[in-house]
Write a structure and sequence with these properties.
The protein has 3 helices and no strands. It is mostly helical and 78 residues long.
Length: 78
């Protein structure tokens, strides 16, 4: 049981990169489609929202990766 906990707590850089890439792709495509559809000044708001959401996705995924790394190190020490 402890091995399963260690495996789930270990940082998986490769899978986190794939998840981040997929999330950014979906947000970027949706923002591009919505911005093109709306056009004009509202497209700028869509652009800013897409950029803000992209930064949020990056920060969230870096946070998850760092937290898993910290948990794995603390679990190995304790």
């Amino acid at each position: 049981m402890a091995e399963a906990d260690d495996a789930s707590a270990s940082p998986n850089l490769g899978s986190r990169i794939v998840v981040t890439w997929a999330e950014l792709t979906v947000v970027g495509l949706a923002g591009g489609i919505l911005g093109t559809t709306v056009g004009g000044p509202p497209a700028l708001v869509v652009y800013f929202a897409t950029t803000l959401l992209s930064v949020g996705i990056l920060l969230y995924n870096v946070n998850v990766l760092a937290q898993r790394s910290i948990d794995a190190r603390l679990g190995a020490d304790g």
